[in-house]
Write a structure and sequence with these properties.
Structural class: alpha/beta
Order of helices and strands: HHHHEHEEHEHHHEHHEHEHEHEH
Shape: globular
Number of helices: 15
Radius of gyration: 19 Å
Oligomer: single chain
Strand content: 5-15%
Largest sheet: 7 strands, parallel
Distance between the termini: 31 Å
């Protein structure tokens, strides 16, 4: 039974009536819930201490370490939800893709996937491939109690971009060359990645995650027509695959202001909005029936407290008429962010929105 389900005749699960889950369901909340993308990790000194000398991908496979890192921002910031500590390339590594996360660079794939023969390297993901995820989430849900845990995965387009380019890219020239030049190969690649991603999310939900977020980090590189034709079907397949669990599904991308309506159409319950589009305008683009998540510019946190509070009020004002709102940054926490500024931000949003 998922953490979001409250079937007739049964008691709700511990997280069901949390502010975060209520906001996802577009129900009245006692205060606007807050969590931050990349809250678990690099901005926290306690994170650097426990991860010292441990490579990133290895750290994702140690359940007790994953649990500790995931819990750190909950303890420190009193956020309304935890987010599972992992990386979007973990399921690719788990099925045998030769890749590594290089400091200062990001995921690097030894042999990029660019031909139909290369698709054979993308075998199905099984729960046994990521048994450490199940174990870590078991540890976490026991500790978190009524605080929801958000699972996550990379969306097919973003995973495909890394696999085809061989690493991070600003132009996506190889990925777009296949997308436009061999649309059948592209569709088959994304379809296979959709199955892998769906399995990865199912493992997290079945282990106890209360909600999931699908990160399409690089979808903003696409024109709307290309997104609709070449990307949306795969993302929709992922979101549809986990619909039956009843957990909220969040869909987020960077630079996706022109894609917000389409991302909503993909099937998410909550659409994440980056900092480039005000939330009231984002709501108009997405349309009714969706909660929104966002969207303070993470760079604002480097400004004095008064400026952070002023910009936060702007976000809250733009969100005042939304059907449901989860306060977040418009992208992830930057590495050099002062953790105390995040703690103060949580307190401020809670105080400003308390009933």
């Amino acid at each position: 039974m998922s953490a979001n389900q409250s079937p007739a005749g049964q008691q709700p699960t511990a997280t069901y009536d949390s502010a975060f889950m209520k906001a996802c369901r577009r129900e009245p909340v006692p205060h606007t819930p807050v969590w931050f993308m990349r809250q678990a990790g690099r901005s926290l000194p306690e994170y650097h201490k426990v991860r010292e000398g441990i490579p990133m991908l290895e750290s994702c496979t140690r359940p007790e370490l994953v649990a500790e890192i995931t819990l750190q921002p909950v303890r420190r910031h009193k956020v309304d939800a935890a987010v599972y500590f992992s990386d979007i390339v973990v399921p690719l590594k788990a099925i045998g893709i030769d890749l590594d996360i290089k400091p200062g660079v990001g995921p690097v794939v030894e042999k990029p996937i660019r031909t139909r023969a290369d698709l054979d390297r993308l075998r199905d993901l099984t729960p046994e491939d990521v048994s450490y995820v199940t174990e870590a989430i078991g540890l976490l849900t026991a500790e978190l109690g009524s605080t929801p845990l958000i699972g996550f995965a990379g969306a097919p387009f973003t995973l495909a971009s890394y696999l085809v380019e061989g690493g991070p890219s600003r132009t996506y020239e190889n990925a777009k060359a296949i997308m436009h030049g061999d649309p059948e190969l592209w569709a088959d690649l994304l379809d296979r990645l959709a199955d892998i991603t769906a399995t990865f999310l199912k493992v997290q939900i079945e282990a106890g995650a209360s909600a999931v977020q699908l990160f399409d980090s690089w979808a903003g590189a696409l024109a709307p027509a290309d997104y609709r034709r070449s990307v949306l079907p795969a993302s929709a397949k992922v979101l549809k695959a986990v619909e039956g669990y009843g957990v909220p599904r969040i869909h987020f991308g960077v630079g996706t202001g022109e894609l917000l309506q389409l991302m909503g159409e993909a099937g998410a319950d909550v659409v994440g909005v980056d900092y480039r589009v005000a939330l009231d305008e984002a709501a108009r683009r997405v349309g009714p029936g969706k909660a929104l998540q966002g969207n303070l510019d993470p760079a604002v946190l480097f400004a004095p407290t008064e400026a952070v509070e002023a910009k936060t009020r702007e976000v809250l004002e733009a969100a005042k008429d939304l059907e449901g709102h989860i306060f977040n940054l418009g992208h992830g926490v930057m590495p050099n962010t002062d953790p105390d500024s995040l703690t103060r931000l949580v307190e401020y949003v809670h105080a400003q929105t308390a009933l």
